[in-house]
Amino acid sequence: MTTLESLTTGAQVGALLPLLTAVVQRPAWSAAVKKRVAVLAALLAGVVTVAATGGWEQFQNGKITAATLLAVLAASQTSYDLLWKPSTLAPMIEAVTSRKGPQQAE
Fold first, then answer.
1. Rounded Cα gap, residues 58 and 52, in angstroms
2. In sequence order, what DSSP letters do the residues of the chain get, joined into one string?
3. What is d(CA 50, CA 47) in angstroms, rounded to the nearest whole number?
4. Residue 17's pLDDT is what?
5. Residue 7 three-state SS
């Protein structure tokens, strides 16, 4: 895999990642907690992307691994801020997938 391919794949994964992250995010969480969860999810998705596209031996190429991780992180943060948050789709997914507490049941 080349660096350009890793950047492209990482960007594609990162662009859709906020929708998956919204499933575990909760509306009541602080912005700092949501940011930490999003960053951890991006790093995990980056690792999975590297392994899925080049196999586990791909991790021996630090340049490609770093490029993929950074591409996923950058694309996920950018797509959330520019697309998914303004469209209210990600916040809507958060609200729909949040468990209701006993006081919210009615």
1. 9
2. --HHHHHHHHHHHHHHHHHHHHHH--TTS-HHHHHHHHHHHHHHHHHHHHHHHH-GGGGG-HHHHHHHHHHHHHHHHHHIIIIITTTTHHHHHHHHHSPPPGGG--
3. 5
4. 96
5. helix
> For 38-90, how does the pLDDT look when each residue is reduced to its tens digit (9 = 90+)?
999 999 999 999 888 877 777 888 888 898 999 999 999 999 999 999 999 99
Q: For residue 74, which of 5, 24, 30, 8 has the smallest C-alpha distance?
A: 8
Instruction: Report how far residue 3's alpha carbon sits from residue 102's, in angstroms, rounded to the nearest whole number.
Output: 50
Output the six-digit token pair for 99. 């468990």
Cα–Cα distance for residue pair 105/52, rounded to 1 Å = 41
State the angle between helix axes of 31-54 and 62-79 in degrees (0 to 180), rounded to the nearest 10.
Answer: 140
